[in-house]
Amino acid sequence: MKSDSGVILGLMMLAGLLTAVPARAEDAAVSCEVPDYLLASETTLPKVADAIKSGHSLDILVIGSRSSTINTTSASEASAYPGRLQAVLKEKLPSTAVNVSVEIQAKKTAEEVAAGMVKLMEGKKPTLVIWQTGTVDAMRSTDPEDFRGGVDAGVVALQEAGADVILMNPQYSPRTETMISAPPYLDNMRVVAQQHDVPLFDRFAIMRHWNESGEFDLFTTFHGIELAKRVHDCLGRALSQFVIDAARVNPAQQN
Amino acid sequence: MDAAALAPAAAAPAISVPVSGERELRLDLFRGLALWLIFIDHLPPNFLTWLTIRNYGFSDATEIFIFISGYTAAFVYGRAMRESGFVIATARILRRVWQIYVAHVFLFTIFLAEISYVATSFENPLYSEEMGIMDFLKQPDVTIVQALLLRFRPVNMDVLPLYIVLMLFLPAILWLMKWRADVTLALSVLLYAATWEYDLHLSAYPNGYWVFNPFAWQLLFVFGAWCAQGGARRMSRILASRITLAISVAYLLAAFCVTLTWYMPQLSYLMPRRLEQWMYPISKTDLDVLRFAHFLALAAVTVRFLPKDWPYLKSPWLRPLILCGQHSLEIFCLGVFLAFAGHFVMAEVSGGAGLHFIISISGILIMSAAAWLFSWYKHSADKNTSRTKGIGGNADMAGGGS
Question: Has this prediction a pTM greater than 0.80?
């Protein structure tokens, strides 16, 4: 029996090494590559499409928690994903005036943000609101039902204010996985997105894909500001593609 | 001696317990399996995660674990209640509850050590928001007291508190079952329904709720107890029928197809919208009916194709699983600890998927070795100390088991 288990252990380790090889090989290059299915969306963004086709300005408002910023003094606002989104969209849509602004609602649950949503939208007429939420709720482990109610109310308020809406879920954060349980909040955001025909930008799945494919190592302890900047750059790119795809406009045909 | 002690049990009418004193190895086998799967699920996703049942249907290892715990606890303490009376059985159950509580506090201490370390060593601007989770370290006075009250529970430490609450109510459950087993089960279903209707739950600290709602999860526990008290035998005709098998297999297949769309979002366009809106979210907290039904179907199919006298139950290959199942509380705690340790190693050494795999496998090997060691202890202790209360000792090992 002893020798048998030795053989098995050997085989298992071999299998482990084999699976390790491809992950290593990809380590070097960063391409921001995201599989198509993570950016596919059945629902559309009619107001964004109108703005792009008619050549009006495209005003995007990002409402988010602190993970929508890079929180240090050395990083400028432009290197966080909203800033990158603006830069890439301007590049891709040269004849549209793209303007991205950010409202940070730090340490507020979805319910709290939703309660202030009407006030937040006062005097603003964004074409599109990207609402990033879920992180604070997951950290405080609020009741998922309450969370869903909050997201639901917020989306309704945004739609009533006349904006297209995209929901964005929390970051994939492997190091805090033993402390923060994200799945219930991810599931509930998916449900709300479906109910209101709102596209969901699956930041969690995208970052997890990058971590698994070896594009970024999000697990290790030591990282400077550079990793944060690169991840936000890739997020901004993916988000810009997501917006353009969901608006169903082909940038090449613009003008 | 065992045989003599068992005689009254065999003679006891009505509430039937398998006459032979032999262990039901299938229970140990599947509880051991559940423990391995829980360990793998507690590690970050890797290649082995694809072997865990939660990827192939609605229910996961937690359901197996709680059901079998209910079954074995009722089996062992039910016997104690018939032989020695309510007071003695309750006393034994409470001693078991205390053991589980101590185990939970021990795990919490290890968790504190891990996260304090992470908090001081982790510098990543990308996750400055997520690091806010460490804020509770700033007020240990409140946090630790709340942890002792079972109200503050970090992720992955929810099963034992649930188990503690369920075991606390076991004396009442058994007492009711002695009177009318079916009524007890009916009451349990009623409580489950009330939980969904009136949103019963236990609150947690600093806010939120218990991740496994005891008001809902008691259904599985009581159902396990009901099966142990003769329910399983009375259901044997239903379990043997082809219709049951057909329904179960159909349901398992349907659940498999649905789960497939979670992991391959490319396929999600195939899901009917109506069905999605009716079905989601599938609540784990409140033990969604879909999850419960999935467990029932899984159990029905398993019982049918894996008879009690399945020869492989004695095979040395399944021995590690069975041993783990026989020392479930110890192995469960070890598993949680190893999962923490695994996170730790992965954080310190960026070894990629290979290392990840080796950690998973060594965790399982360590769990098996520990289980072997525990049973060696038990058998050598049994030999050396000729305890007259042989059954009592036995009960704790078999029964309570987490």
Answer: no
